[in-house]
Structure formats: C-alpha cells, structure tokens
C-alpha cells in the first residue's frame, strides 16, 4: 500500500524518517558540545543542560508506544505541539527539584529556630545551662586602674550535651544535630558576681590563714529553698563583680572554644577577703571560687533570652599528671643584696633588693606601694606573734612574661623599735638569766643558718595617687616570706687572736703547777676579733658602727682535746676600728686574771710543759660571745655569737 497519504516521503519508511530526524538533532548537539569543549565547567547548570537532563528523564519515563521528544507526533497532533508539551514537562521537573531543595533548607532552618525557641522553655533552659563546661587555665594580673583590676584569663569552653541534657539518646541526638547546624551562638557581655571559698586553702595546706575571714560579709547564696544548711556554715563570701566581654561559642558537640581575654574586677567586697586572695595570687596558690551570672544569648540578630548560670571552679590547681610545671608565685623570692647607708635626714636608709622568677604569660605594671615589715615577737601569750621592725616602699615593678623580676624595697630607720629590743620574759635566755629580745633571736637564727619568717603587711598610709579601692585592699594584704640564714662559708667571725696570753697560779701551788678546784689558775690576754658582716649586707664605710662592750665564754683545745674552759661573766670594754677589706671590723679587748676551769688535767699539764720548755703551745679557741652593738639608730645586744680561731699560748712567767 502506498504511503503517500501519510504525508511522508514515498522513498522513506517511518523508521528511516525517525532516524534522520534523530541524526540531525544529534549532529547539532555534538556541534554544541564541541563548541563548548574548551570552556570551563560552569558553577551552576546551564539552562540547556537542564533541558537535556529533563529530556533524558522524560525519555526514560515514557511508556513504549507513547510520544516522546525526538519521535513522530501521534496522529492528529503536529510535531511542534508534541515538542511544546515536552518542554512544559521539563520545566515542571526543574521547578519541582528547585523547590524541593529550598523546602529542605527552610525545614532545617525552621527546625533550628524552633529548637532555639524551645530553649526558652524552663525545663530545657535548666538543662542547657549545664551543657557548657568551663575550664580556666590561668588567671594573672594584667594592670590596675581607677576602677579596679584587669586580669588576664585563659581557658576554653567545651559544649558537652551528654553531661547537660537529660532524656533519651534520640532526644539528645536531635538537639546535637540542630546545634551543629546552628554552628555557634553569641554570648553577650556578662556581669559575674564572684564568691571565694575562704576555707579551701586551710583544709588543703598548712598556710597560716584565719579560720574565718569575716563573719559579717555577704555569703554566697544559691537555691535558698533547697533545704540545705544555713549560711552559718557557708564558707563562700562575696568577693567582687567581674565584667567579661562577649564570646562566640562553638555549639558542636565536644568542640572547644578557646578564650584569652582581659576581665575587669571591680565593686570589691570586704578588703579582708580581697587581701587574702591577693596573697594567694602572689603565691600562685590554688583557689576555689563560685560565681553567678545572667548570660544573654543571641543568634542571627535574634535574642534567645537570658540564662542564670552558676560556676564552680578551682584555679591554679596543681597538675595531677605532672606534665606541666606549675609556675612559682611572686612569694618565692631570693634576697640579693642589702645596702645600709646614713640617711640624709635622720637615721639609716636600707635598700633591699630581691628577685623572683615570673613565669606567667601576662605583663603588668605594679605601682609603688608602702609596706610594713615585721619579725617574730616574743613567744605567746605575752605579745603579738609579730612585731614591727621597719616600714618600707617598693619601687614600681614592671612584670615581663617569663622573666626574672627585680624587686627593690627602700626603708628609712630613724630608730630601732622598742618592742623588738625589749627582752622577753619567757623563751630563750642568755646564760640562763637574761632573756633574749625578738631582734636578738632573729639575728641569732640568721647567724646559725636558720630561716626566719618575715611578715609583710600593707601599710595603712598609702600615696594619695593610689586608687582608693587599691589603698583599702593593700591595707588588708598580709603574707610571710622566708628570710634564709647565712651560708656555711659566710662566717661572721673571720679570725681570733690571743696576744700576751698569760697563765698565773696561786703562790701556794708547787711547780710544775697542779690543778686544784678551789685554787684555779687564771688567764690574762689581749683578744682581737676580726668581724665581717654577711656577704649580702653592704654597710657604708662612713657609718658609725662599733662594739663598746662584750662578754662570753671559751673552750680551749690542744690537738683536738678539750682541756680547759673560761667564763667572762662581766661586760668588758672594747675598741672598734675598720679592718682590712670591705665591711670588716677589728674588735679588741683585754681580759685580766680570769679563772680557768681545767677539764683534762693531763692535757693541761702537757700544754703547760710545752709553754715552759718550748716557750709556747698552739691551741684552738671556740667561744660564744655576747656583744653590745652601737649604731646611728640606737644600741642593741646580740648574744651567743660563735667565734673560733687558732692561737698560741706564750709564757710571760708564773
């Protein structure tokens, strides 16, 4: 049958016509692809690519025998009409795909906003405030100003939903997922009320702190209706208010947000509390704090409310694993030098230089401050455990991170305070009768190489330029530092000489002399003592320093054997002059006809024979001397000074 009625070329079958049509379009597509082969791949799909993709989808979804793009139109429908319908279906497919993606994004956003809105529900709010885990690594002084203290705070915040949230794991997973989608939240500037645990260091260390800082300061109060104990046993006391800058916190589960900022501490509570905290900061002690704040939270410009948050934190805690060395505090000081010079006004000027390792990361400038130096007083209960020795001023201190810091203290001594010169009526005594004074006990411990504890207290009189809040706090600062004794090689007595050493016996004694307890021999001599001040103390040569009186006792040794003992019970006048070398003095005095107690008669007899036959015998003298020292600011008595030296007993007749 002829195909002419069909409108096709008689020489072509229907399949051939479809094939030619497809080939012509295929050549066009290949030409387009060839023309674009040298172009970069576009970031977004081209419209024609979307058409081709949609056409492929339509071809795949068209049932066998139905019309499709690139085929002959069904009977009664022109090819142009069929192509138009295919274009409409492709456009609808593109539109549906785009709206599907946008709807997914909007659903997630809506879900996120819903979760953030739900944060304002009390039950979830109470849980969510427990999610952030605050970890403070270090708190150190940054600077001071008229409003308060600026402190450098470093650490991190970790978001841990497993610790903070309750309920099923599915519920936690939903909140974790949405929080991860949110990514972060903005925590606004906070005003934190800080409370200090006054009992923490008392329970964990042997520091001598007050058992209670104060009974009339504001206690830390939280959940008053929880049925707990009343405030009488509450160790937390109000300390200060702290302003903390805003911070963007990562909301992904177990992600850390590090911070390193300067916080302002102001509106201080009791000066006694602040003084105690300052002491711990200087010593780098661990401290226990609690804090309360109202935290504003926002995201994308939307305010999600304010949350009540309480912190419980120990700072400067010891590293339990021992991986990191804990920096030493400023109270670990080394005494470098003490210089004593006559004052231009009255008395003496004492300039003390100390040093300490500053291992913190923050720099700071500390202004000049006035202090009172106290030494241990008489044993209790007669007087205060510490007595004022002098007042001093620290020079301004510039702290540089990880450096050795020099501290200079200048004191003016117009007179020696009577409280440290007056002998105690209990405690150690001299020769079993006269009790020592606090200053005498201090010097004795230093000379013996023992460590004294020196108490430093803020003076009640500070410079007018100092902020009022700081002046009140400094008056409440009180701490002790060790004052180490002299080293073993730093001997106070550099040498001992006996000149014109003579022994005399009663006329009734036979010759060679025989010791009789009721008729002891007597010694006479000129004794010269070479005295040098400790290496750390530099005394101006023009300073009027002398030893007008002395007394004491001595043991005599020959070839290591103790053979005699001498007691000088009465004060003997002395002369003092500068000796060779810096800070060295020569003290000279005479003893006349002092009784000698013979300890070993055989050794004593041998020494006397050597004196008689050889004209002299070498001996060693080990003495304990009491001395009255005269200074420009007053006289003081120093007891039990050790003195030793080698000399020769020479004959001058019996």
Automatic annotation (TrEMBL):
Composition-biased stretches (Polar residues): 58-84
Tag1 C-terminal domain residues: 543-650
Pfam assignment, any one: Tag1_C
Originating organism: Sugiyamaella lignohabitans
Protein name: Tag1 C-terminal domain-containing protein
GO cellular component, one term: fungal-type vacuole membrane
TM ranges: 99-119
Composition-biased stretches (Basic and acidic residues): 37-49
InterPro entries listed in its UniProt record: Tag1, Tag1_C
Superkingdom, natural source: Eukaryota
Keywords: Membrane, Transmembrane, Transmembrane helix
Keyword ATP-binding in record: no
Residue ranges that the Swiss-Prot or TrEMBL entry lists as coiled coil: none
Chain intervals for the UniProt region annotation (Disordered): 1-85
